[in-house]
Design brief:
Two copies of one chain form a homodimer. By secondary structure, the first copy, chain A, is of the alpha+beta class. In chain A, 33% of the residues lie in helices and 37% in strands. The longest helix of chain A has 22 residues. At the A-B interface, helix 2, helix 3 and strand 3 of A face helix 3 and strand 3 of B.
């Protein structure tokens, strides 16, 4: 599954190729990606804030895309808003982790609305990890737009 | 001035080269940048949310860097937190605009603290414009860290 989505993301979001963003594991409920530091450095030699955000956004988007493909819903997936907190510098290659919590109210609402072909928002939290330390947290409000 | 900073950003944040991010005008109080759509597309053929954020972050960072260089302060400039709202799709090359409001309380506080060699936060708003329409707004909390 991860190869299919790796290919999809690299082809449709070419920035992820340049960034050397890769899926390590993927299921419809969780994702783990890795991004190389070298193409993503800033003036301090650590990861550029924009790269950290873009790697985490690609990670969250891929998880939600995989989830809704696996459920065969028809919707357009877009980001409406996002907040990122930078906790410490990212000094090496880094990982992004995200999961969908089963049995949550947000997930129940999303499923209910998509089954009625109605648009719905859904929040996803992505953790950015470097050398076993949490370095940043991205929270994205995605919207599934039904036509 | 813009050529110096264009060179600085392209050399120290290589992602901005790939993204084809360019400074159109720059002074210590305002900046106007342009980013090409082609390297920054997503699955919908519009600009990837991560690219929009990274272009706007590079724009805000460059403005603050230029401002504090021109005032000859000694500090490390980092992003602590950011919020972005996506209002409409970015369907073509796009521009980022940001300015520092003179005479604001935030600026007075920043100057006062930097003159005492004390760290201080500073908020910057960056507007992302495409075809004369406001498509996204990024608000970044930068921190000037004094040692």
């Amino acid at each position: 599954m991860q190869n299919t989505y790796q290919e999809l993301v690299r082809e449709t979001i070419p920035l992820t190729q340049y960034m050397d963003w890769q899926i390590k594991t993927l299921s419809p409920m969780q994702i783990h990606s890795q991004t190389m530091l070298a193409p993503n450095i800033n003036i301090h030699g650590t990861a550029f804030a924009g790269s950290i955000y873009a790697a985490a956004m690609a990670t969250g988007w891929t998880l939600m895309k995989c989830w809704y493909d696996s459920n065969q819903y028809q919707a357009e997936l877009v980001a409406a808003e996002a907040n990122i907190k930078y906790l410490r510098p990212v000094t090496s290659d880094f990982e992004c982790l995200a999961q969908i919590t089963p049995e949550s109210d947000a997930l129940r609402k999303l499923i209910s609305r998509l089954e009625q072909n109605r648009s719905c928002g859904f929040p996803v939290k992505i953790e950015i990890i470097c050398q076993n330390q949490l370095c940043a947290i991205l929270e994205v409000s995605f919207v599934f737009k039904c036509s």
